[in-house]
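Q: What structure does this chain adopt?
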Amino acid sequence: MIAVRWWVVLASVLLVSAPMQDKEGCQDHPLFNRMPHFDIYSCNTVDFDAVDFAKPNLKEWNGPGDYETIEGKVFSISYKVQEGVTPPSALQIIRNFQNAVKAAGGTVLGEFTNPYAADLAENMQKYMVDSPGGTLYQRYTNLKLTKGESEYWVNVAANADYGDYNLVIVERKAMAQDVSVNELVDKLNKEGFITLYVNFDTGKATIKPDSAKTLDQAAEVLKAAPTLQILVGGHTDNVGTPAANQKLSEERAKAVMAALVQRGIPAGRLTAQGFGDTQPIADNRTEEGRAKNRRVELVKK
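A:
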């Protein structure tokens, strides 16, 4: 069997049109050529963030458990059809991207016509530039593919009435750690606490595997300060009842304490306590603020 390079397949599915009036500083993502006769009118790149992708076949958003959160480098690119050109249908745009990704060995994760399933999560919406004619697109699809060692998650939203489409591409990867163990030890000694952002299953105290590095580093910090007694404090956002949040924060604090003990920290040095939603550090009215409030703190006693 003759191997076909996937990017050649992509080029054969998504036809190339020369950029005419792209916004300054914007360009196509290396994964995809653009649809013909479209220009870029907006773009954004963030080195690290979390984006929620609707799970396959979701018909209506009911809660955070309906999404899969993907962390990594985020690219957002918005295209508008050129003046005087009849735009393709939203379905044609969606199918082009689906066919390209499938030909490259990737997967179609879902297709939606209901925006409340496709993009209601705030941390997806903030990367979706509003359609020139309004805030909602007509069709959406979520895709996943691998190139080399990188895994990409892609949301495509299209609106034929206004001749535009939007790409949100997340290159999945762990955050680059900018703070060393020594710096964190200094912070713990001087400020009295350090903050951990540990990912849990929604509404549960089950720690997700992608938090292993965070916990490994936390354990190294405590090993570097062996005389400190530590309070492991759990905190939630304000979604849900105060009683439920209090219980969840306690369970999560205990789960982190257990994970640190597994990594060699004596249990006698640690105490777990939950604070529920009583000590927010950010605005609970936004998803970004709620994400900051969902945290575990290691506090020097």
